[in-house]
């Protein structure tokens, strides 16, 4: 039985105002387009799409469909890193040949439909558009070696060695929101949404607030058998956990040129200074947690996140875990001049977390400045 998620809210089936938080993070797919309806006797296939004006994307459903793996070409996966260095993204993503999907019935997917409901936009390889474009009709029925009757979710996963992309893959699966969700859309477009608890949202509805991303974080915790009710999460009885998420240099993308660039060149120095500061901090007990996530199982990572009062880290994929943080967690991001990107400021905003940033002139952080910022945060926590 699925666990109760405190932030879970009913899926809105009534029209949602374009540009609202629900349209970005919930059901904004309010325009239905039927390309193929079932026959009057209930037989044959069907093909319908739901379009979101806000995300400019669609979710499509099909019935009585044959998938032909022989007509789908893509990289094998599991290759040695050196062999894929510099490979273009187009070589990584699947190519759907004509007839990759065949549907039982007469249906034609034309260019007008694709441009209106599955616009290519700035995406070079729009795999969902390419998949729909590959659909062909089988008016005389389907010949299949195996039939799967239960609903099946067809997802293109990007699978970089990068937690941000892993989480966005999981988000698309657990909260199906089409091809480009707000986690990506927000990087190029201002999304005026603030995180709120489901209780607050129900008591005082506001279409500029959302609990959807908090619900997703609870889904992740539940998947690893961790408490989802914050009243059941055991934090230190005395003092606060300050989690320092360590970042190890690595190649996160196959198209990477092979040159590793540090986000925080003196990370060990900063960590050692914080450790010394925490040991001598007299206002309350501060437990500095060494977040070596690259050497921890996912459940251990999530547990460290939910037990933290403050999460510190250089800009990097590990900070994506703040999606699963508790509502009173404070985020402190250290940002080098080469990586001024809003990923984690936005996630904090959409989660309703307090967020602070230290913007560096290069990649070197003055330990005293980090300690000063953390001291102010601790004072605001009553410590």
Automatic annotation (TrEMBL):
Domain Glycosyltransferase 61 catalytic: 231-332
Compartment(s) of residence: Golgi apparatus membrane
Pathway(s) it belongs to: Glycan metabolism
One Pfam family here: Glyco_transf_61
GO terms for cellular component: Golgi membrane
Keyword annotations: Glycoprotein, Glycosyltransferase, Transferase
Membrane topology of this protein: Single-pass type II membrane protein
UniProt-recorded Gene Ontology molecular function terms: pentosyltransferase activity
Annotated protein name in UniProt: Beta-(1,2)-xylosyltransferase
Gene assigned in the entry: XYLT
């Amino acid at each position: 039985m699925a666990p109760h998620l405190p932030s879970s809210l009913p899926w809105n089936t009534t029209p949602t105002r374009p540009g609202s938080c629900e349209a970005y993070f919930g059901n904004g797919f309010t325009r239905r387009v039927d390309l193929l309806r079932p026959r009057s006797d209930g037989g044959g296939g069907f093909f319908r799409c739901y379009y979101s004006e806000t995300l400019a994307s669609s979710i499509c459903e099909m019935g009585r469909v044959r998938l032909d793996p022989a007509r789908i070409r893509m990289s094998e996966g599991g290759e040695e890193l050196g062999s894929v260095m510099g490979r273009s993204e187009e070589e990584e993503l699947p190519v759907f040949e004509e007839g990759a999907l065949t549907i039982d019935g007469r249906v034609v997917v034309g260019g007008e439909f694709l441009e209106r409901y599955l616009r290519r936009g700035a995406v070079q390889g729009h795999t969902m558009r390419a998949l729909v474009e590959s659909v062909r009709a089988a008016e005389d029925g389907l010949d299949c070696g195996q039939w799967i009757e239960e609903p099946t979710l067809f997802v293109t996963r990007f699978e970089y060695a990068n937690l941000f992309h892993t989480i966005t893959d999981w988000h698309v699966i657990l909260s199906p929101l089409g091809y480009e969700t707000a986690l990506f859309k927000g990087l190029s477009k201002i999304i005026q949404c603030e995180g709120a608890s489901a209780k607050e949202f129900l008591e005082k509805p506001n279409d500029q607030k959302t609990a959807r991303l908090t619900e997703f974080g609870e889904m992740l915790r539940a998947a690893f058998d961790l408490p989802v009710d914050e009243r059941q999460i055991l934090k230190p009885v005395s003092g606060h956990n300050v989690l320092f998420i360590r970042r190890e240099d690595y190649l996160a993308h196959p198209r990477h040129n092979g040159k590793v660039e540090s986000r925080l060149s003196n990370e060990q120095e900063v960590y050692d200074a914080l450790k010394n500061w925490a040991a001598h901090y007299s206002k309350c007990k501060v437990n500095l947690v060494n977040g070596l996530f690259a050497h921890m199982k996912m459940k251990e990572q999530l547990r460290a996140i939910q037990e933290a009062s403050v999460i510190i880290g250089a800009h990097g994929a590990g900070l994506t875990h703040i999606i699963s943080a508790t509502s009173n967690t404070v985020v402190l991001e250290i940002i080098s001049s080469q990586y001024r990107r809003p990923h984690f400021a936005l996630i904090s905003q959409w989660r309703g977390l307090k967020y602070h940033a230290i913007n560096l002139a290069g990649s070197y952080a003055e330990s005293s400045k980090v300690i000063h910022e953390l001291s102010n945060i601790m004072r605001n926590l009553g410590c």
